[in-house]
Amino acid sequence: MENKKIQASIEAILFAKGESVEVKDLITALECEEEEIREAIDHLKTMYAKSDRGIQLVELEDAIQLRTKEEFYDALIKITTVPRKQTLTDAALETLSIVAYKQPVTRLDVEKIRGVNSDSPLNKLLEYGLIQEVGRLDAPGRPLLFGTTEQFLRSFGVKSIDDLPQMSPDVLEDFKAQAEKEIQIKLDI
Predict the structure, then answer these.
(1) Does the CA dihedral 125-130-136-137 come out positive or negative?
(2) Phi and psi dihedrals of 110, rounded to 5?
(3) Mean pLDDT value across the chain
(4) pTM of the predicted model, to two decimals?
(5) Residue 101 and residue 176 in one domain
(6) DSSP β-ladder status, 131-136 and 55-60
């Protein structure tokens, strides 16, 4: 299949699906080699990145998706039903950070790190589609394991979990010292 036809086919599939499509599924559907698919994806990304285009092609781990460029959200909202804005509380953001960096993680692990019950923030993150159940821990009670979703990657503008910012060693040491001081204060009380 020629490159232009592969690009058009990928574009049609992404438009029709309206959600992310895994590269392996494109390879199967178009009966092409991975190299041909990747080349077509790169060309489409470049084409959509131009300033005169209203959509962009984003990569989410091993999947791709078409979505509206952020600078056109205002115009889009004027003709669509405005969705309820999802606002995350500090507790939900803290919980989401723990899940993102420690995944897969259990509710108990999150609560040990936060020091408080985390049922409500976890439920809210599940409701917003930012985290999901990814399995069960092979331990007594078989507790649920949580991990982030593609919606998390889209919401935070990262291609994969590996693209999350890493904490500098200096800041990490400061946090450890602060935590140790807080633990000592609690023990003294």
Answers:
(1) negative
(2) -60, -45
(3) 87
(4) 0.60
(5) yes
(6) unpaired
Task: Identify whether residues 75 and 96 lie together within a single domain.
Answer: no
Q: Pairing mode, if any, of strands 55-60 and 63-68?
A: antiparallel
Residue 46's alpha-carbon distances to 42, 57, 70, 103, 109, in angstroms, are 6, 9, 17, 33, 42
Q: How far apart are CA 56 and CA 69, in angstroms?
A: 6
Question: Residue 177: which domain range?
Answer: 90-188
Q: What is the mean pLDDT of residues 46-53?
A: 87
Q: Is the pLDDT of residue 80 over 90?
A: no
Residues 73 and 125 in one domain: no
pLDDT at 149 over 90: yes
* pLDDT value at 139 more than 70: yes
Q: How far is 152 from 156, CA to CA, in rounded Å?
A: 6
For 97, the enclosing helix (H) or strand (E) is: helix 90-102
Does residue 150 surpass a pLDDT of 70?
yes
Q: How many Cβ atoms from other residues are within 10 Å of residue 125's Cβ? A: 23
Task: Please give the pLDDT value at position 94.
Answer: 92
168 and 120 within one domain: yes
Residue 143 sits in the same domain as residue 184? yes
